[in-house]
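Here's my example:
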Amino acid sequence: MTRQEIQKRIEELGSKQQFIIAEMTRLGFWTQHGEPIPAELVAQDAALQKELSQLLDRQRRFQSRDAMLKEMRQARMAAAKQRRIETKQRREAARKARADAWQATLATDVPYLGEGTPAALANHTADPDRLRQVGLPQFESPLALARAMGLSLSELRFLAYNRAVSTVSHYKRFHLIKKSGGKRLISAPMPRLKKAQLWVLENILSKVQPTEQAHGFRAERSILTNAQPHVGKDVVINIDLKNFFPTVSYGRVKGLLAKLGYSEALATVLALLCTEPDTQALQVDGKTYYVGNGSRYLPQGAPTSPALTNLLAYRLDRRLNGLAQAFGYVYTRYADDLTFSASGSGAGKANQLIWAVEQIVQGEGFVVHPDKISVRRKGQQQRVTGIVVNQKASIDRATLRRFRALLHQIGQTGWEGKTWGNPAPEADIQQVVLGYAHFVQMVKPELGRSLVASIRALIQSRPDAALAQPVEPVPATVSSTATNSAPVARPVKEWWDVL
């Protein structure tokens, strides 16, 4: 055996004497059949010596206070380190479990769409009976809604997410000049959002019928059908609602959809798809950010906005129609234009009617525009949504003369530099002119057909119309796409109490 092997063997046996006895036994110098007492005594002695050595070593260490404290500190530090390792492992495992659970949730649900949405998105209680009564499709979850819309759940989340700050805008915004000289903000949805909104319009909103008094944005209804009930009346009263679309907040849209039977979760998703806040474009380090400013409301330019306002004005129409009948008037509404007309004794109650209308409008969360109340009696030109209604539905003669003059100028010098009305910045002048001709055709079919034919001939002979380019808002640290109108009124009723 080598020296190292001998030393290792002594350590294993516990003492040198034990090693000697073991070797003597192995080599035959110590027989197993001899007296066992000496060997046992040697073994016991070795064990006792080993234990005594350990006790003496421990005694020496404990005799030194500093050494003892150091050992205790080291023991505590080692235990604390082990606990930290175990705690870190538990937390990492819990974090991973939460992350996995969150990813699993995102694959099947929409638990969060911005500040203030989690509680609403957690409520999946719907009213199936109400949905069947109204004739609306039912969806068990946002995932089912996304599939019905032809979207992935992540796409639906992207379109509906209420971001305070974003590098992406779902709308292209520009201003139109009003006849009064102010500016009207138009928010045109980008293609993906517009496609989703058109689906909501076709599959949900268009299935709910507004009141008979509503003529705007409905099939088989028009500005002509809105004007016809007021033909030949002694008095015609026109009242405009101020900031009609901005008055309709996200909460009112959500309340309408919940009232129709959808769960609060689905009502939240659909309301977010159909609303937007005022947005400020800012540039930071050459990158454009879109910062939301204020609460969400119906954008003027989204295909869902007119239908939503018709439904949200359901109770307004019912109350105003009842008021009109009580005063002997006929009532119709085209978007934000309210029209009342009467003959006989009712014509003398115009002031009382207007006062009562203002009270009802305010109670329903809308605002009457104080500068756009018109009372026209016989002997004055009476107009309803652009149509003259004194004796029959007709077009204003002065406007027709100006339109014919415009067509003559186009025939002489071409389309460039010509305008009509207050079109959008990107509007095609040819289509704008054709649109007015079709409007004339709706009221006066024979004259309208003649004008349409003349315009088409001009397009063939002078196809040089220049398209106006859209005027994009310039990002700046102080510019905002918010309208320059006064703050809009908010409804005094609960968000869900809309019908």
User: Anything to note?
Assistant: The two ends are 102 Å apart (CA to CA). The first helix runs from residue 3 to 13.
